[in-house]
Amino acid sequence: MLESLTLRRLVLWLLGPFLAAAILLYGPAPALAAPAGLVSAFNGQVNIQRSGHAITVAKNTPVEAGDRIGTGAKSGVTITLKDGTQFELAENTSMILLRNQFNARGQRVLTRLDLLTGLVRSLVQLAPGNAPNYEVHTPNAVAGVRGTDFKTEYIENKPCPGFPTCLRYTDVGVYEGIVEVSNPTSPKPVAVRVTGGYETTVPCELAPAAPGPLGMGDLTAPGYH
Amino acid sequence: MLAGIGEAKGQDLARFFDPEIPGHLTLRLFGAGYGAEKYGTTHDGFELSQTITHEVSFIGRAIAYQVERGTGFDSPLNPSSHAATHNFGRFEGGLSLVPFQGTTFAFMGGEDVGDSDAPMFENDFSSWIRLRSRHPVNFAYSTSHYFENGVTYGLVDLRAVAFSTGRWMLLMGVGGAIWGGGSVGQAKGQGGPDVGFFLRSWRLSVDLQAGYGSSRTYGTLSVSRSVSWDE
């Protein structure tokens, strides 16, 4: 009897730390989930809606998956996720941080932003050996990161450049790396890979256009003026 | 299935008359220098452009010119025997139109003040083609007429985006000028290759051209930077 009690204690003493470590590493998530990220900078009118309630925005306000984030005129906000990935909302932008999942080793499983209107610029941190798994969805486009720095803008009620009869479109411009862009609402499931220095437009339900150089609108006419 | 397409039919012409809200104000600062065996000049100034409708803008320029020596393609001065530097200012204004994506046409009139002191008019055209390709091509021309010396000149430029990164763009092509009439008489010309850099974050353009023509070997350097505001 005494021997069996001592043996049980010995087994618990030996295995206890391993069991505790296993529960910590692979066990279910605690009831209070860690925030997906923080508000690292903001200016002007910024609002965060969580479960239908407005959150007061200040520097370091936690942001969670499911939050709807919006900016007013002449306003902007930068969110830093826990792996250092940042996204900036320009003025008059509305988006939902739909998912932000990481595995036990801190590698991203999937981050998904749903851009409802306006412009969001993403600076994605890449972990070596791990796919970026970072996507920005608009009503008519999906931009999936294969690189690091890109912007996504969804515009409504303006003719799409090059497609004047289309009044809603998505622009995806890439500063560094590669972004794969597709239109899930298009009958043609074509994905376009956009490299750094180029941009594409996704008009209405059409496939993404062939990429052209970024910011051609900023180029004034050459000449000796 | 193709919802959204077709909703804008018939609106293209209306965009010429619909006011742009919010309006857009653009300031462009520029400076340039031209050096040749027979002619040397520099100028610098600014341009303000204010949208009126989606496709029409007011445009105005104020420019200070210094003619260091000789006469050349863009000089409004009459030939003179003394070699002093000539200075004059130019104030011009007009309208800029965007008839379709990538194409602008501006026409302006104005007056020179100083060593040149007479009206002038100018029109500028620029069109980008193959915008949705890796190497869009630009064709541009600018023509001006000076009532001071009766000379008309035109600049022509054809170039393409050679390379683009997230930070800058490289453009390469050829350009030149032709001028004549008034105090110049018979038509003269010049031309050569050009190269341009565009730095995105600064919205800064640097253009270089060198070549040969009626003023002998020449080179130009022009720099411009633009900033804009939504109102």
Give me the secondary-structure topology.
The complex is a heterodimer of chains A (225) and B (231).
Chain A: H1 2-26, E1 37-43, E2 46-50, E3 53-55, E4 62-63, E5 68-71, E6 76-81, E7 86-89, E8 94-102, E9 108-123, E10 134-138, E11 141-145, E12 149-156, E13 168-176, E14 178-182, E15 191-195, E16 198-203, E17 212-213
Chain B: E1 24-36, E2 39-51, E3 56-70, E4 86-100, E5 103-114, E6 119-129, E7 137-146, E8 152-164, E9 168-181, E10 185-199, E11 204-213, E12 218-230
Antiparallel strand pairs in B: 1-2, 1-12, 2-3, 3-4, 4-5, 5-6, 6-7, 7-8, 8-9, 9-10, 10-11, 11-12
CA(first)-CA(last) distance of chain B: 37 Å
Largest beta-sheet characterization of chain A: 17 strands, mixed
Percentage of residues in strands of chain A: 35-45%
Class computed from helices, strands and strand pairing of chain A: mainly beta
Q: What would the principal axes of the Cα set say about the shape of chain A?
A: globular
Helix count from the secondary structure assignment of chain B = 0
* Uncertain spans of chain B: 1-11
What tags apply to this protein structure?
heterodimer; A: 225 residues; mainly beta; Jelly Rolls; 1 helix; 11% helix; globular; B: 231 residues; Lipocalin; 0% helix; disordered N terminus
